[in-house]
Write a structure and sequence with these properties.
Blueprint lengths: L3 E3 L22 E2 L23 E7 L11 E11 L5 E2 L7 E6 L7 H16 L3 E5 L17 E2 L2 H4 L19 H10 L4 E6 L1 H17 L4 E6 L15 H20 L4 E7 L6 H10 L4 E3 L7 H15 L1 E7 L25 H15 L5 E5 L2 H5 L5 H19 L5 E6 L2 E6 H5 L10 H10 L5 E4 L2 E7 L7
Parallel strand pairs: 1-3, 6-7, 6-9, 9-10, 10-15, 11-13, 11-14, 12-13
Antiparallel strand pairs: 2-5, 3-4, 4-16, 7-8, 15-16, 17-18
Helix pairs in contact: 1-10, 3-4, 5-6, 6-12
């Protein structure tokens, strides 16, 4: 029978064809899991995922993020493939080799994912050879200055890497010639490639899978989404996000201690979040000590903010301000359309800008103030994974192995309502997940900080925020 899980997701201009995962061909080999770990018989059988198992989702007009509430635009539903082990595999484990690459910025849990992929391949599928590609995609191009020869990911090598932050394989940003990367995989006799990274990495993985398909090769390319920004579509929570929130909350606690230990103290913390404010919003709610939180999805009402900050300092003698790195960019004078090696737009420093604006305003008002500016960005992403992320890393890693062994390719592992799914990489590369200004998360931020007085909705445009003249010292 067809296994289905009904959930609500929110998409924009999508149809079923975009969510069909490419498959290399017919699965002819009985899974090594059969009879050992999974069975098909008995009342308590741990069963395989059926070939047509699906996660069913309805189209919604609001595509800003999964936690939004939108209006249904169609009675049609989208079916995602349900992740998990299949009864038959496409690849013969005895003659299969795998490779793992980590790309982009650091993220808690990278080593956990590497280890779980290796262990699932070795112990449960019997794949004895997995190599680690060094320094990201540069490690697949011998002509690159960052190239290092791949290493064998033996059981001894991965034994305790899950206790460490960073990535034992090294990382890099930026694309490499696709033809050179596929040549590298062929030279090293690789059938399974696991790409661990964010949207830039998955765009690179798409290029590799497109070239593999163009050449008619039988090679599975599977992505495991990684980003502390939590902005990959169809991934409810990326691994590393929970660990980063935990670290960010500790930093905010320190900023609060600084602010409360001096007269008219202000603790200003800048957190990561280039295009989405999930880290800033989540850390604000977790800490319960933030008075002002600013994110990329919502404009900063600068005049109202500065005026109220003075009122708050007069009334409470301290304040804590959290800002995501991508917030308030409309207030800054950009120096052109500069991008990093991954193609991401480089933002001006909103943290320093806020520091300057606050300092200048208080000086003009002749109001004494002590401001401490904290930018912990690289610290919160380089720590080891916490318990919640360790569990998610293991689940995603093993689901990626199940997908690759069954011949799925050009896809990533997604997560919706705590259900792992297969998402075609084409669907991931065409948009980013963002926080909705009318969603539950931002509403919770406003309730925690009390800064809702600074905003009111334009009745003609529910996503447009206008400055309210009301002030508050709460």
């Amino acid at each position: 029978p067809c296994q289905r899980v009904r959930i609500r997701l929110f998409f924009y201009n999508m149809d079923q064809s975009l969510f069909t995962v490419p498959t290399l061909g017919e699965c002819k080999y009985v899974s090594p899991l059969k009879g050992r770990i999974l069975t098909t018989e008995g009342a308590n059988a741990r069963k395989f995922v059926e070939p047509n198992a699906a996660v069913r989702a309805k189209l919604y007009s609001n595509h800003l993020c999964d936690e939004s509430i939108g209006n249904a635009v169609s009675d049609e539903h989208i079916n995602f493939e349900l992740a998990g082990p299949r009864e038959f595999t496409y690849f013969d484990p005895a003659v299969t080799s795998a490779a793992i690459v980590t790309c982009g910025g650091l993220c808690p849990g990278l080593n956990n994912v590497i280890r779980s992929v290796v262990l699932e391949l070795y112990y449960n599928y019997g794949v004895r050879r997995t190599i680690g590609i060094r320094n990201g995609f540069a490690g697949m191009n011998p002509a690159s200055s960052a190239y290092k020869a791949p290493i064998d990911l033996t059981l001894d090598f991965v034994h305790s890497i899950n206790t460490e932050g960073g990535t034992v394989l090294g990382s890099s940003r930026g694309p490499q010639p696709v033809t050179d990367m596929v040549d590298f995989l062929l030279k090293n006799d690789i059938q399974l490639l696991f790409c661990i990274g964010g949207d830039g990495t998955q765009r690179g993985a798409k290029g590799i899978s497109d070239e593999v398909i163009r050449r008619g090769l039988k090679m599975a390319v599977v992505g495991i989404p990684k980003t502390i920004d939590n902005d990959i579509p169809y991934v409810e929570q990326s691994f590393g996000y929970a660990s980063s929130l935990e670290q960010a909350e500790m930093v905010i606690r320190g900023a609060h201690n600084e602010a409360t230990s001096t007269q008219h103290g202000v603790g200003l913390v800048k957190l990561m979040g280039r295009d989405a404010g999930f880290i800033a919003a989540g850390a604000t709610i977790a800490s319960q000590e933030v008075n002002y939180c600013f994110v990329p999805e919502v404009p900063i009402p600068m005049e109202a903010f500065l005026a109220d900050l003075k009122v708050r300092l007069e009334a409470r003698d301290h304040a804590v301000v959290v800002v995501a790195e991508g917030a308030g960019q409309d207030l800054l004078s950009h120096a052109g359309d500069k991008r990093d090696a991954s193609g991401n737009l480089l933002h001006d420093d909103i943290g320093l800008f806020l520091k300057e604006q606050i300092t200048a305003y208080m000086k003009k008002e002749k109001f004494p103030m002590s401001l401490k500016y904290i930018d912990p960005s690289y610290i919160i992403r380089s720590v080891p994974a916490n318990t919640q992320d360790k569990l998610l890393c293991d689940k995603m890693a093993r689901a990626a192995v199940h997908a690759a062994m069954s011949g799925k390719t050009a896809m990533i592992i997604g997560l919706v309502h705590n259900t792992l799914i297969h998402v075609p990489v084409d669907a991931v590369c065409c948009e980013k997940k963002r926080m909705s200004p009318s969603g539950d998360l931002w509403t919770a931020v406003l309730m925690c900080t009390g800064q809702h007085f600074m905003y009111r909705f334009d009745e003609t445009d529910k996503n447009k925020m206008l400055v309210s003249p009301q002030k508050s010292a709460a």
